Predict the 3D structure of the following.
Amino acid sequence: MSKHPFVIIFFIFSTLSFSQNLRVDYNAEFYGLDIDKNLKPNKEQQAGLDQVERMMRNAINSQTIVLYTKPNNQFLLEVEDKMTVDGQMSSNLGRSVLKLHTYLYGLDETTVLGYNVGEDFIVEYTNNVVEWTITSESKDILGFKCFKAVPKYLQSYKQKEISSYPNEVWFAPFINKRGGPYKFTNLPGLILGVTSSTATITAVKITEIKEDKIVPKIDKQIITEKQAYLNAKAVGAAIESRMMK
Amino acid sequence: MNKFFKASLLANVFVGMSSFSTITDIDRSTGLVKVEGDVNCEDLASTLYNLVSVFAPHTSQAELTGIWFDAYWTCLDSGLRYSEFEANP
């Protein structure tokens, strides 16, 4: 990890220390599909793409994203669909676009577990697949100075997968907690902003809480990120094979 | 088949797929669209999936799959409960 010197200084001498757990509420905003500018859809195709953008925007706007910090540098992120009605299937489109799960549980310094309601497995994300460049670029989020960190993904996936991943993360070294709306959280401070080519997630409220949020049971098979990627590919292949018929 | 569904949801796409469905009336006061003909929700979802994979090639597989299922379930929930998935599971 490369660090700009004064980021380290800020981190070491940070005076704001939260002894209690925190609740952080985030808002997500959808920019639009990342359309290839060399391709010109006709009127009907454009109507379809517009429809997909509306679906994606609705899916993202309906998500509530809340982070709870926990003792021992753990955290739990909950992503819920405000529109979900009991007994009805909830769409996972919003979470897919935001690269999140229903729950992200920061287990320790190196591992985050991702759960989705209705799935029979839990995905394990390990920090060693991301290399960070911490820049001197900064901005304030909720009054906290945040620095931009740029991730480099080391997974051997197709480039289109990597291109859809978040390309910048804003973390607050002054908040001595770990976590954020992101699967890789080995940064020296709480993540208050995440940006990808299609969406951005930004903290809108931070409150101190006394409770220690209970983590859902880890009672399912734990699979690697690579296996989860292969599963998603298999579902895509099944859809595409039905189209060919 | 003669069904109503909310215009804001899928009207544009159905117009583009008029070979098996036709929008015959739009009630602007209620936002409801009248459709005649069978609408295959699987075909609708696949059309959107294909469009995005061609015109937005950086869209991830998980997003494409999410788009397919969202379109499929939205289509079914719109009251156009016709689908090959249901007929031939």
